[in-house]
């Protein structure tokens, strides 16, 4: 930075997306007065933000997101009076948000999400009268939502305060945000009733209030929100009936009202005709005239509206019957198991584990049992007690790491909603305290004896993967992604697909693991819609992240397709996408594309060629030709999946069909005589 002090006409300084380390020097304040853009994001910068940054009074853009910056934001940040966009998200910043930010009268965008900010939201933010987008999510902010925020009539893109510890009620003044597009107050401690004034936000497209303590009924004023596309009011204490006017909302693609105290008969038209877009589970006093939503059927006379008292009686009666049936089934099952005198229990019976249980299982989390470690925690091999009689993997989350608690919740949510042969099975979750009183979170996972795909591609200690194994693994990964993208309701994007997150079972079948960055998409048909909590930067690992994420594009299924394509090319070449060979604009995609198809043999993993004679084919020449054809098809698929533009990539539905066809052709080759 000191050496740049003589660049007196410097206007833009971009050092983003490198591996820069160390602290920001105080000499940053000596940069030229002409500097309008300073981009330092996506590095490994640590230390604190020097107060001298306040000397850069002509800055318009300041991006420092996705680093390891700690400490408080200096009050001198308020000196940057010309600042239009400030992004400090995805760091480890702490303390309170400085009131001096209120001096940034030209500010359009403020991103402070995914940090450790605490204390109240400063009311001074109400002085940023040109603010268009404000994201303070995923911190530990507390207190009430300041009314001053709702005087920001400029807010049009979004206001995201989710995943904090905000309390009290939503101010009535929220109705002033008539042009707001997104409101996300989810996963806080907000109580009271949903303000009727919210119906004045007529341009609202996305409303997320889930995971709070809201009570009362859904306001009738919501009838004015005709352009809204997603509403999530789940996990609250809302009561009353579901408004009929939701049937007329043509733009509504997601309505999540689950786990409340709603009652009465479900509406039947509009969005309620699509069970993949409406979620109402956990409301035991709801009934329906159709079995589509898996609710108790209303009595015929309920079409003329039973009284609330009768509906409650019906709901309670149904609940009692279900509980009784469950108890009977449990007793029968238990007696059946006793009659077999089985001393081995299945993993599905294991539900509760204490901290002491896991300490014992891993021999005190011994390094001898360490299977691997990542950003958010470590995985240990564990042996359960005599009743379990089985080996498991135990993923212990490092809760001091930024994003680790959110990663634990994401994995629990993902595995709670999924079940597939090519996904690693989670046996149980443990959320408790250790012996020092610190928070402790862990997942007990099915043990995969053959480790990760990464270890098989690169380890010299293992037998090289045959072409047959590589094709089979490619099919298994595609099957898992096809299930997540097209069979889950709502669809799930993995967001961190790479060989170290692909585990291999005893039969060398592939299982997808690590859903810490997974994202639920709001609608079944959408491949690009997500909430604003995903705007904090690229999600995933370097080399496997889709290029569009680096430009701020939202999470999509196309991102997973790109990562899958990179894995295919990696399995074929035996080279990581981060290999030192790939520099000066050369990527693994371009490397393979330049050799395809005439020179493909020159870049293949030598282990594939060595194993050509071991694939079970009688005629070596014919086998070589056939296997090369298989490889070319696999390479072509990898190239199409890893295209730079999302629209140029195939869907995972088509990918799964294509790679399955390659597998069938290869299998036919191997059985020829």
Q: What can you see in these coordinates?
A:
The protein is of the alpha/beta class and 673 residues long. It has ten helices and 33 strands. The strands form seven sheets. The protein has a twelve-stranded parallel β-sheet with strand order 1-3-5-7-9-11-13-15-17-19-21-23, with no helix packed on it. Helix 5 runs antiparallel to helix 10. The longest helix has 33 residues. The protein is globular and about 70 Å long.
Main β-sheet: number of strands, strand sense, barrel status? 12 strands, parallel
Count of the separate structural domains: 4
Strands of the widest sheet, in order across it, are: 1-3-5-7-9-11-13-15-17-19-21-23
Radius of gyration from CA coordinates: 28 Å
* Assigned CATH architecture of the largest domain: Alpha-Beta Horseshoe
Q: CATH superfamily of the largest domain, please?
A: Ribonuclease Inhibitor
Global mean pLDDT: 83
Question: How far apart lie the N and C ends?
Answer: 70 Å
Keywords:
alpha/beta, Phosphorylase Kinase, domain 1, 4 domains, 12-stranded parallel sheet, 5-stranded parallel sheet, 33 strands, 22% helix, 18% strand
